[in-house]
Amino acid sequence: MPKIVDHEQRRDEIALVACRVVAEHGFDQTSMVRIAREAGYTTGMLAHYFDSKQDIIIAALRLILRRIEERLIGSPAQAAEGPDLLLLLTEALPVDEHRRIECAFWTTFWGQVPADKRLRRINSWVHREYLRLFERCLAQCWRDWPRWPAQLREQVLKSVVTFINGLTASAVANPGDWPADKQIEQLRLQLQLLHAWAMRAAGAAGTHHAVRA
Question: Among 26, 33, 47, 164, which has the highest number of CB atoms less than 10 A from its own CB?
């Protein structure tokens, strides 16, 4: 009886291998041949699933985004007593080897975006998805979030994403300077500062509105 192949699972396996290869060797040194060898497949088998290296890279991006979303949804931080924002957002940082590979892949991908129109479109989509995920986390964890003006919420959200991207890039480039506990502590401080600033800004906006009324 012929073996039943789960083609979606195989595509994910190849994409995950590509993620590791890019993280270890860089985008330019990653080839279809190298990905196939690391995955234990022939280049012909690889070509059966992907037309080009770029297609594999895009599949890896989608896979990582899905895995991050699954971790956010299934995180222990989503406990019965309420979600913990710091623990939730830590899921997106390179705090262990598994996440370091994902984040190293991201930072390598960012370097390719300016020169490729297709990758720019994909990056825009990924950025929107990240905003959606992080906004969901903020809305779940900060009770004041719904009462803040929309413009303020957008500013806070973009600040969180920008900070996480910058911290990720720093931790990937200089892992010795950014152990997990230091990353988490910096994220904690940033969230505290942002929340305090937003509360003051929301209060000032409410007072201004009341005076005008």
Answer: 164
